[in-house]
Automatic annotation (TrEMBL):
One of its GO terms (molecular function) is nucleotide binding. The lineage of its organism: Eukaryota, Viridiplantae, Streptophyta, Embryophyta, Tracheophyta. The record marks D92 as: Important for catalysis. SMART domains: ELFV_dehydrog (SM00839). SUPFAM superfamilies: Aminoacid dehydrogenase-like, N-terminal domain, NAD(P)-binding Rossmann-fold domains. GO terms for cellular component: mitochondrion. It comes from the Eukaryota. Belongs to the Glu/Leu/Phe/Val dehydrogenases family. It holds the Pfam family ELFV_dehydrog. This is Glutamate dehydrogenase. One of its GO terms (biological process) is L-glutamate catabolic process. Substrate binds at K16, K40, S294. It catalyses: L-glutamate + NAD(+) + H2O = 2-oxoglutarate + NH4(+) + NADH + H(+); L-glutamate + NADP(+) + H2O = 2-oxoglutarate + NH4(+) + NADPH + H(+).
Length: 361
């Protein structure tokens, strides 16, 4: 199944969002994810509408050459819909810089060389330094901003991380570097735990060489579902949507949840967690580091000028800190939680742009 959804008609700039390859991709989910991109871009204050694309497939079952052919055929079908100033794809679950390189190459056969038509591409093809790490790094900046509000810091706190792909592995690495104790990690093959803190660089090497978390010597294996209710200070879902639901929310022991995945908490779980006093940092803010650095990549491509990595990371931190304070202001003004504050900020920015364009009903 191939699907591409766009949620905003060029109100403030092109539409933007990732392309997902996963067996559970369906049009409703892609549409919902495109809507999240609209509010996410508005919260980050970057000039984009929302989009998302996906293919229902299991990339783990496909060879590299099958993935390339699939991506090229997909691009042949959507090349008239995407474009530097209309809709700019990026990686999401199951896709990566190589996928973006194939899209760029195939698109350029129809429209001429156009590096800015995708972001998250390899550096050698015009990708931005810092984009690969950006979502995980943004998650860490977001966590630091939230924890500081509560008089805490990453150092010394315990973390459980679901998902060890692009977002989860970068978040784990950066938390480990800051002195946080990552005590549980999972991927699709299972989960591992170590109450003294997992050696994340070692786990990265193990995952890189074996392709899974299984048989890692530095930690005990655990039930992957148990990870979400494991005793820790901070839980970071970095995989699928809907993983926190009424069946497990009451058992969550973390005091903070940083939503690095898109839509990991369903509305029933949200209510249960709020009653328990768990502080949830919403996805449309917490994982916005990826699209923010995608914006920097697009700007660099259009300018034909490459930023150094320090500039990318510093500017990302400024964007994440500014957005956190804007959300907090909304929460204070409307006496609401962080999710409502983030949505109020995003929706009000989109509404203002709509009115200014004269599109009111
Ligand atoms: N990439 C980006 O820039 C952004 C991503 N996001 C969101 O972050 C989340 C992760 O994306 P990303 O890291 O890019 O995706 P990846 O495909 O790189 O990684 C996904 C990870 O989730 C694991 N996983 C899949 N299913 C399960 C499961 N049932 N239980 C536990 N782990 C599972 C995978 O396991 P395995 O390694 O074994 O395959 C993998 O480690 C998604 O929700 C995505 O929408 C949000 C903003 C930007
Ligand atoms: O980098 C991008 O453009 C989009 C990233 C994405 O898909 C997301 O934030 O969910």
């Amino acid at each position: 199944m191939l699907d591409l959804e766009c949620n905003m008609i060029m109100l403030v700039g092109p539409m933007k969002g990732g392309i997902r390859y996963h067996p559970e991709v369906d049009p409703d989910e892609v549409n919902a994810l495109a809507q999240l991109m609209t509010w996410k871009s508005a919260v980050a204050d970057i000039p984009y509408g929302g989009a998302k694309g996906g293919i229902g497939c299991n990339p783990g079952d496909l060879s590299k050459s099958e993935l390339e052919r699939l991506t090229r055929v997909f691009t042949q079908k959507i090349h008239d819909l995407i474009g530097v100033h209309t809709d700019v794809p990026a990686p999401d679950m199951g896709t990566n810089a190589q996928t973006m390189a194939w899209i760029l190459d195939e698109y350029s056969k129809f429209h001429g060389h156009s590096p800015a038509v995708v972001t998250g591409k390899p550096i050698d093809l015009g990708g931005s330094l810092g984009r690969e790490a950006a979502t995980g790094r943004g998650v860490v900046f977001a966590a630091e901003a939230l924890l500081a509000e509560h008089g805490k810091a990453i150092k010394g706190l315990t973390f459980a991380i679901q998902g060890f792909g692009n977002v989860g592995s970068w978040a784990a690495k950066l938390i480990h570097e800051r002195g946080g104790k990552v005590i549980a990690v999972s991927d699709i093959t299972g989960a591992v735990k170590n109450p003294n803190g997992i050696d994340i660089p070692e786990l990265l090497r193990h995952k890189e060489s074996t392709g899974s978390l299984k048989d890692f010597q530095g930690a005990d294996s655990m039930d992957a579902n148990e990870l979400l209710v494991h005793k820790c200070d901070v839980l970071i879902p970095c995989a699928l949507g809907g993983v926190l639901h009424r069946g497990n929310a009451a058992d969550v022991k973390a005091k903070f949840i940083i939503e690095a995945a898109n839509h990991p908490t369903d509305p029933e779980a949200d209510e249960i967690l709020a009653k328990k006093g768990v502080v949830v940092l919403p996805d449309i803010y917490a994982n916005s580091g990826g699209v923010t650095v995608s914006y920097f990549e697009w700007v660099q491509n259009i300018q034909g000028f490459m930023w150094d990595e320090q500039q990318v990371n510093r500017t990302l931190q400024n964007y994440m800190t500014r957005a956190f304070h804007n959300i907090k202001n909304m929460c204070q003004t409307h006496d609401c939680n962080l999710r409502m504050g983030a949505f109020t900020l995003g929706v009000s920015r989109v509404a203002r742009a709509t009115l200014l364009r004269g599109w009111e009903a």
